[in-house]
Structure formats: structure tokens, C-alpha cells
Design goal:
Strand order of the largest sheet: 5-2-1-6-7-8
Radius of gyration: 20 Å
Strand content: 15-25%
Helix content: 25-40%
Bound molecules: NADP nicotinamide-adenine-dinucleotide phosphate
Order of helices and strands: EHEEEEEHEHEHEHHEEHEHEEH
Length: 344
């Protein structure tokens, strides 16, 4: 018997990608339900070669749902995830609402798959922030070898990380620039077309942004609380694909060649690192792909045991939808959940 899977936020950037990936990977689902707000009720979304009619979350009964993939933002998740979990469905949530809850595992399967076992306390599992997910996939195998002390990361995050309205804003601003129309700013605090914005999420008291804080705290929770991490998160006018310039200080010696070999063998990683024109991956090439790409691996002689690298991934996939579905597969493969008996 297969599972019944509900996708909440099915009309959004992440939700649409979830439906695509469920179909692509032949996820063992007998039924997939697409849910969104009342605004989208009755609209259609694509699931493989089928179309699904979107239902409204607020009217839906989750009694026979086994797995709920949530990607409808923090406020919706805060209200709905506990209710859905109480109906016996395991909620895998993409928002930041539950990530730091000690009773909720925060999981990237290539890094800490074992942590899923803790899901039963609340029946909720959290998916990390998109920038954290691809970063820890690259850090984990290097940490296992040479123990990371400190990471300095600058991100170049695409507008799709801020939802579908943000993609529309980059599109309409770009068009306005070419047609000499007024450039209107709504979603972003400054113009994003032909610009970069060093500000993602809200400001915190110490001057960092919440996005930067999330990268630091989530890396500690997923990988190792001893790792020190400082981030500068920047929004760039790219539609899909996040990039990160990463500088790492290790406890033990590690050469660039060793790092390249380790990363070549690591799950989820793909090394493209030729020291020549075009011998690296850009976000455009990561779109629609599952891998976390690693390029520009080199030693940093300004610190002991230092390495620098360039990490790129499709933020809607590894940063969100794919990771959530890999978590669901981890639950199923580990026999940690069973499909409920459905009414005939
Ligand atoms: N984009 C990324 O790279 C990324 C990565 C990691 C995590 N996330 C997180 O994933 C979540 C979704 O992101 P997104 O980029 O997909 O956003 P999005 O494109 O703006 O889509 C939001 C989705 O949530 C639904 N929704 C909004 N309010 C709702 C309500 N009251 N009840 C039910 N559904 C509601 C929307 O439905 P309607 O169409 O009906 O409004 C839509 O399907 C966010 O929490 C985000 O932080 C995103």
C-alpha cells in the first residue's frame, strides 16, 4: 500500500517543484493532494502527466494523510503543522517556524539522516534554509576529514528564494529598465534588477540579518555546535540557483587536492573544478539539477589549514523541495512510518 501525500503551498515556487520531484522520483504515493490558500481553490497544478485541482487548506481533513509537505510560510506552518501532526500525518516543513525547536529534527539526509528518528515527539521535521542546505552538504565530508573550526561565507542568493512574487518583481523591473518605464519596488527594499542587495530577512540587534543568523544556527544544529560561522547574505538578480563563496579554517591539515577527492566521493556533491575559463559551475547551470556543485577549490595561505570554495545549487530543489522529499524517503526506507489504512 502506498502513502497519501499532501503538498501544502502547491501553487508556490517550492510546492510546484515538490510535485515535479514526487513524480520524477516515482515516490511511493497512492494519492497526492495539492493544497494552497482559498485564493487558489479550484485552480490546477501539474503532477507528472496529470493535473491536480487545488484544494483549500482550511477546509481539508488530514485524517488519512500520511505525509504532509509544507511550504506555505512560517505563519501558516505555526498554525497548521501541529494540527496536521495531531491527525497523525508527519509534517515536513520548509519554513523557519520549527527549525530551532529542540523537539523537531532539522535534517539534510546526506549529513544527519539519523536525526529523523526524533520526529515522533511532535510529528514535525524541519527542512533547513536553502543556503544552509547546500552549504552543509559540502562541509560535512570535509568536517569528517579535517574538523572545521570556522567558516566565513558570502551568499549570492537568487530571487526565487523569496517566493514567486519576488521572481515577478525581478522580471517586471528588468522589463521596465529596457522599456524606460518606472521601476517599481514592492517585495525588495531596493531595486533588484541590475543590482545586488546585502539584506535578506529582518535585521537583528547585533547588525546581522536573520538569514545570516539562520545559516549560523542551523549549521550548528545539523553539523556540529562547535563550528563557528559568520555569513553575509546577499540577494542577486538571478532567478534560480544560490551561490556561496566559502572560506573554511580546519583544525587539521587538508590540501585542495585532498578536498577535491573527498568531495568527489561525497553524497550529493558534484565537483566541477577545472582551473580554466568556464571550468566552474554558475547558478544558471544548476537549475533543475539535484546536485550541490563545488568549484574553485583552493588553499588559503592566510590562515593555518585554510581552504576556499564556490558552492552552487538549485535553491528550490536541494534548498527546499528535494531535501524535503529525501527526508520523506528516509522515513520510508528506514521503516519509521507506515501508510495508514484508508477508508475503502
Ligand atoms: N524558495 C526557496 O528557495 C525556499 C527554500 C527553503 C525554504 N523556503 C520556504 O518555503 C516556503 C514557501 O516558499 P515559496 O518560495 O514556495 O513561496 P511562494 O512561491 O510565495 O508560495 C507560497 C505558497 O504558500 C501558499 N499559501 C500562502 N498563504 C497560505 C494560507 N493561508 N493557506 C494555505 N496556503 C497558503 C500559497 O498559496 P496561494 O498561491 O494560494 O497564495 C503558495 O502556494 C516559505 O516558508 C519559504 O521560506 C523557500
Amino acid at each position: 500500500m502506498g502513502y497519501k501525500v499532501a503538498v501544502v503551498g502547491a501553487t508556490g515556487n517550492v510546492g510546484r517543484e515538490m510535485l515535479g520531484i514526487l513524480a520524477e522520483r516515482s515516490f511511493p504515493a497512492d494519492e497526492v493532494v495539492a493544497l494552497a490558500s482559498r485564493r487558489s481553490q479550484g485552480t490546477e497544478c501539474t503532477f507528472g502527466d496529470r493535473t491536480l485541482k487545488v484544494k483549500a487548506l482550511e477546509h481539508y481533513d488530514f485524517a488519512d494523510v500520511d505525509i504532509c509537505l509544507m511550504s506555505a510560510g512560517g505563519a501558516v506552518s505555526k498554525e497548521w503543522s501541529p494540527r496536521i501532526a495531531a491527525k497523525g500525518a508527519v509534517v515536513i516543513d520548509n519554513s523557519s517556524a520549527w527549525r530551532m525547536d529542540p523537539d523537531v529534527p532539522l535534517v539534510v539526509p546526506e549529513v544527519n539522516a539519523d536525526a529523523v528518528a526524533g520526529f515522533a515527539k511532535k510529528n514535525i521535521i524541519a527542512n533547513p534554509n536553502c543556503s544552509t542546505a547546500q552549504l552543509v552538504v559540502a562541509l560535512k565530508p570535509l568536517h569528517d576529514r579535517a574538523k572545521i573550526k570556522r567558516v566565513v561565507v558570502a551568499t549570492y542568493q537568487s530571487v526565487s528564494g523569496a517566493g514567486k512574487d519576488a521572481m515577478d518583481e525581478l522580471f517586471s523591473q528588468t522589463k521596465a529598465v529596457f522599456t524606460l518605464d518606472e521601476v517599481q519596488t514592492k517585495k525588495f527594499s531596493k531595486r533588484i534588477a541590475f543590482n545586488v542587495i546585502p539584506h535578506i530577512d529582518t535585521f537583528m540587534e547585533d547588525g546581522s540579518t536573520r538569514e545570516e543568523w539562520k545559516m549560523m544556527m542551523e549549521t550548528k544544529k545539523i553539523l556540529d555546535p562547535k563550528i563557528k560561522l559568520t555569513a553575509t547574505c546577499v540577494r542577486v538578480p538571478v532567478f534560480v540557483g544560490h551561490s556561496e563563496a566559502v572560506n573554511i579554517e580546519f583544525e587539521n591539515p587538508i590540501t585542495a587536492d585532498e578536498a577535491r577527492e573527498i568531495l568527489r566521493a561525497a553524497p550529493g556533491c558534484l565537483v566541477i573544478d577545472k582551473r580554466e575559463d568556464g571550468g566552474y559551475v554558475t547558478p544558471y547551470e544548476s537549475v533543475g539539477e539535484d546536485a550541490t556543485y563545488i568549484s574553485r577549490i583552493r588553499e588559503d595561505a592566510t590562515v593555518d589549514n585554510g581552504l576556499s570554495l564556490w558552492v552552487v545549487s538549485d535553491n528550490l530543489r536541494k534548498g527546499a523541495a528535494l531535501n524535503a522529499i529525501q527526508i520523506a524517503e528516509t522515513l520510508i526506507n528506514g521503516k519509521l512510518i507506515q501508510a495508514k489504512k484508508k477508508a475503502a
